[in-house]
Amino acid sequence: MAADPSSVLAALGLDRRAEQLYFRLVPVSGHTLVGVARLVQEPPASLLGRLAPLQALGLVVLDEDRLVVPPLAEVLSDLVEQESRLAATSASRLHELSRALPHLVAAATRPDVGDLSDIRPLDGELSSGGDPLELLHLMMRTSRGDMLWLRPDAWALPRESRVGELLGEAIASGRRSRAIYPVRALTEAPEALRARARLGEQVRVMSELPTRMFILGDAHAVLPEPIGYTDEPRVHVRQRSIVAALTMWFELLWSRAAPVPELETGTGHPDERQFLLDQLMAGATDEVIARKLGLGLRTVRRRVASLMTELGVDTRFQAGAEAVRRGWL
Questions:
Q1: Which residues pair with 216 in a beta bridge?
Q2: I need a surface site. Which of 116, 118, 166, 285 has the fewest CB within 10 A?
Q3: In the chain, where does DSSP find H-type helix?
Q4: How far are the Cα atoms of 44, 72, 101, 131, 282 from residue 95, in angstroms, in the given order?
Q5: 179 pairs with which residues across the strands?
Q6: Residue 4: its pLDDT value, please?
Q7: What is the pLDDT of residues 154-166, one digit of tens each?
Q8: What is the rounded CA–CA span in Å between residue 111 and residue 281?
Q9: Residue 6 and residue 60: Cα distance in Å, rounded?
Q10: Domains of the chain
Q11: Which stretches of 189-329 are DSSP H helices?
């Protein structure tokens, strides 16, 4: 076990000789290297060699032909900042490496080829490029059954109107379409949702969605890679068991999402009471609720207060309990 350093310079890793040299240089800061060498009675070349560990730490700086000794507190501050940046970089790199480990482990769990009797590739691909609209149109033509959509931000995409046209054609041919949106879409893009509803699509909303996704019958499922809101690269899956599993996930989300009959009739905005109660039960702050619902902070606070008044309670916990008692949740 290393002994505790006896001084600041020793703590920085300098030996006794380097520490003594530093304190001899402090009073002559600003002089030329030749002049300093004369003052400390040492040849310039020899002095330059001994300055190396002090220069590495920034304790001594050679400014052209002059030797400068910055204030020690300033040097220590710079060193701390450098180490802080290094630590942040290391932490980020370690996080990236930790995310790679599961993939390494997963790759090592493949069965030995000699143990397998029938090996076939999965039906699907990870790809980029191409015309997304043309690909979608092709998938619609080569599939039957329900069209299922997770649409966390689709109303903001430039191709939305063309997708709507393709969807309308498919619904007119007798296919059913169901889409789940985040509840903030009710305030951010109500007309986009009404347009879909007018085509005949069933629309539901929930607090938030983790990714874009669409499923066409039992033949196609498309997700971004990695999961989220990006366009490319995308995973196009045609493997029936995987499409079925993703369909089961969609149906689970669909069962938890809330219908929006007001969109079909065009009669105003839907009641957001259930979403407020869901968030209150989850312990979300007003700021989090405002972000999820796409509302202003003051609006959220006003609606929460109104809801609590309607329930006749004083606390958020009581609001959740009373909502359950009334069968609202």
A1: 147, 220
A2: 118
A3: 8-11, 16-25, 33-39, 44-56, 72-107, 132-141, 160-172, 185-188, 190-199, 240-256, 261-265, 273-281, 286-293, 297-311, 316-326
A4: 48, 34, 10, 35, 28
A5: 149, 203
A6: 52
A7: 888 888 889 999 9
A8: 45
A9: 21
A10: 1-95 (1.10.10.10), 124-265 (3.30.870.10), 273-326 (1.10.10.10)
A11: 190-199, 240-256, 261-265, 273-281, 286-293, 297-311, 316-326
Is-contact 222 237, C-beta < 8 A?
yes
Q: Which two tokens stand for residue 181?
A: 């949106």
- Between the two ends of the chain, the Cα-to-Cα distance in Å is 61
- Is-contact 213 152, C-beta < 8 A? no
Q: How far apart are CA 324 and CA 329, in angstroms?
A: 5
Record the tokens describing residue 214, joined without a space.
């669409």
Greatest alpha-carbon span in the chain: 98
Here the tokens at position 209 are 């969605």
| C-alpha to C-alpha distance for 211 and 225, rounded to whole angstroms | 10
Q: Could you read off the pLDDT of 204-227 as tens digits, one per residue?
A: 988 889 899 999 999 999 999 989
Residues forming a β-bridge with 237: 124, 221
Residue 169 Cα distances to 59, 123, 141, 159, angstroms: 74, 27, 11, 16
Radius of gyration for the chain, computed over Cα atoms and rounded to the nearest angstrom: 33
